[in-house]
Predict the structure.
Amino acid sequence: MINKILHLQGRVIVTGIGKSAIIAQKIVATLNSTGTPSIFMHAADAIHGDLGIIQQHDLIIAISKSGNTPEIKVLVPFLKQTKNTLVALVGNTESYLAKNADYILNTTVEKEACPNNLAPTSSTTAQLAMGDALAVVLQECRDFTDQDFAKYHPGGALGKKLYLKVGDLSDQNGKPSVQLNANIRDIIITITHFRLGAVAVLKDTQIQGIITDGDIRRMLERHTDLATINAADIMGNSPKVIDKNELAANALHIMRENNITQLLVSDHGNYDGVIHIQDLLKEGII
């Protein structure tokens, strides 16, 4: 069945009624988001016109605990007439639906979690788990990567973690920098002006170090004569640097690992700005 779906020229149509219809909608959403084009078709609506959803090369998954509900019994003959592959995701392998299906996905449960053994609970959980398992197997067979996943999830924090680049955020900031021989006044003015809590120390366009607010305070504790002190004297000479084409989520990982709030950004080895943890907070990546 997996190979059938992998080589399908059409879509996966998932149908059901009652609670099974709700599970069908979730399975459709998961399949679509993981690279398998899918459509939900309500079993009751199907016999009132929605059968037109089904095209020649589609595969149909019908979900039912009993496999014998009146709506399913009415629908199955029409599904068979279309000559599309029919998969029964069913809790009764001896049911009408199962006996008429080309493939069976067995979701039999001993009893419902409901105290009265009536409300669909264990059975719908089994259906949902089977749908997720199907989607995951198809993902693995397709070598579906996180970059592929990002194409279908451009919105919200999840999407941003998967596609937002460091440069997308750092380009919105200024590019605070001083040269190695910059004096204390120039360093403080630059840090204050850009409000990023740090300044890059450069030799031409190459990063040599970083000076943070904390470096300034520690320097003032150690020195009283500031006239001869320059950037090279107080900079940290092993700054954490990230390429502008890296994912912003990777910048967050580096910041957390090193307990820092900003990273210098490079572009082909040249200084290109600063990304601050506040940039990540604003975008909801944290």
